Amino acid sequence: MFKQTFHSALAAAREASGFSIRQLKKACGLAVQRISRLERGIVLPTPMERDALSTSLQTHAYELLHAPSRPQRHYQRLRNRGARFLPTLEPYYPPRDRRSGVRLAAAHRRYPSEMNKLVRLLARSPDFDDVNFFCESVALDSGLECLFLTSLFADGADPLFVAPYLLAPRLEQAVICPKKQVEVGFRPFPCVKLENALYIPQVAFRTPGTFVVDFLRYEDGAWSAVEIDGRGHDFGRDAEKEAALAVPVVRFSEERVLEWVHGVLERRWGEWAA
What we know:
The protein is of the alpha+beta class. The protein folds into two domains: 6-83, 434 Repressor (Amino-terminal Domain), CATH 1.10.260; 100-273, no CATH class. It is 47% helix and 17% strand.
């Protein structure tokens, strides 16, 4: 306002031209979302973007080429200041019927070779203490799920807290506490981030019946459920559950989990051994 920036010049130029964002997209070739983020100062323009926009918006060509960009740190600083006035929601831990140590012992008993190597890999990680703290409270339904979770961390995953309802698109079914039957999807859940994917263990949905998925996965803007079908899995209600969840379901048999784990060990154990 007091000193024009590239971002305010872009908004003024588009208004003066009478272009909608979609019309400007056709004129300059930039994506609609990119133009919107440039106007709000969330991202910085590249030299090629400055050239394209100044060519399409001649009324402010000089400003679009030369006006300073608003550094992203200002945007982040304002968000951080606002966050101080918001109530902090306590993380939600899905209920569990066994301690994590019980699931860990089962995983070591059934898959001793794989677990020993995975844990040795984890012990070398600079984030081991964070992972250990995370796993002490996480809900798991079997030793096979524990093996799968351990392999995610051994493959370089990070533990964090994320509220499912803050991720778009919004889930169609309500995320609930299965014991109290109240919505909890707005609260941060313990989850695991591996590359572009988030895995949230033991998420319950009201569909209107209650169904719990082993891992709710969010990747590239899409939701899916990962079901770990170990020994003794009851397949009787699988079809009903998959139809009710309204998200794609990917099933991992014990054999498929072990194939995944062996792939992780082949990559990471080889690196570690070298």
